[in-house]
């Protein structure tokens, strides 16, 4: 199964956190591709801009197990879900975004990510890697969703390639 994982963060060495997270992922999944890094306006309380990216991975592991791995990698970078404010600053955020044709509704995971279709900072890197993937709920490709005028107008600009 192929899966897109979103990476984000705005505290500390975010690019270093991305590199360490990708290395941690590679010990459990095949990382097939990495998007560019994008800078985006934060949602929520006043805070620095976010850096965002996406990784295309291939795995035989169930997405809930990948989510558990992602949460461990976030904790290794200093993220504490219990103490942070909703949409507040964080050193690393890893989100399972979408897998072709897969819909999961469970108490621990909703896939595709419930806000993927409205967030340029998630759609832009995702569409860079898999523009033709069809969102199974919205019935549009990632490229089509990223081009919706309200989404395209959100501040989010490509800044560089994501290094291994």
Gist?
This protein has 164 residues and is α+β, with helices and mostly antiparallel strands. The protein has helices at residues 14-26, 63-76, 120-129, 142-146, 149-152, and strands at residues 2-9, 30-34, 36-40, 50-58, 93-98, 104-105, 110-111, 156-161.
Descriptive overview:
There is one protein chain. By secondary structure, the protein is an alpha+beta fold. The chain has one domain (2-161): Alpha-Beta Plaits (2-Layer Sandwich). It has helices at residues 14-26, 63-76, 120-129, 142-146, 149-152; strands at 2-9, 30-34, 36-40, 50-58, 93-98, 104-105, 110-111, 156-161. Strands 1, 2, 3, 4, 5 and 8 form a 6-stranded antiparallel sheet that branches. The longest helix has 14 residues, at 63-76. The two termini are 22 Å apart.
The assigned structural class equals: alpha+beta
Mean pLDDT: 94
The biggest beta sheet is recorded as: 6 strands, antiparallel
CATH class call: Alpha Beta
Q: What series of H and E elements makes up the topology?
A: EHEEEHEEEHHHE
CATH superfamily: 7,8-Dihydro-6-hydroxymethylpterin-pyrophosphokinase HPPK
Unreliable spans are: none
Amount of helix: 25-40%
Write the CATH fold name. Answer: Alpha-Beta Plaits
| Apparent shape | globular
Tally of strands: 8
What features would you highlight for this structure?
alpha+beta; 164 residues; 8 strands; six-stranded antiparallel sheet; Alpha-Beta Plaits; 26% strand
What's the topology here?
Elements: E1 2-9, H1 14-26, E2 30-34, E3 36-40, E4 50-58, H2 63-76, E5 93-98, E6 104-105, E7 110-111, H3 120-129, H4 142-146, H5 149-152, E8 156-161
Antiparallel strand pairs: 1-4, 1-5, 2-4, 3-4, 3-8, 6-7
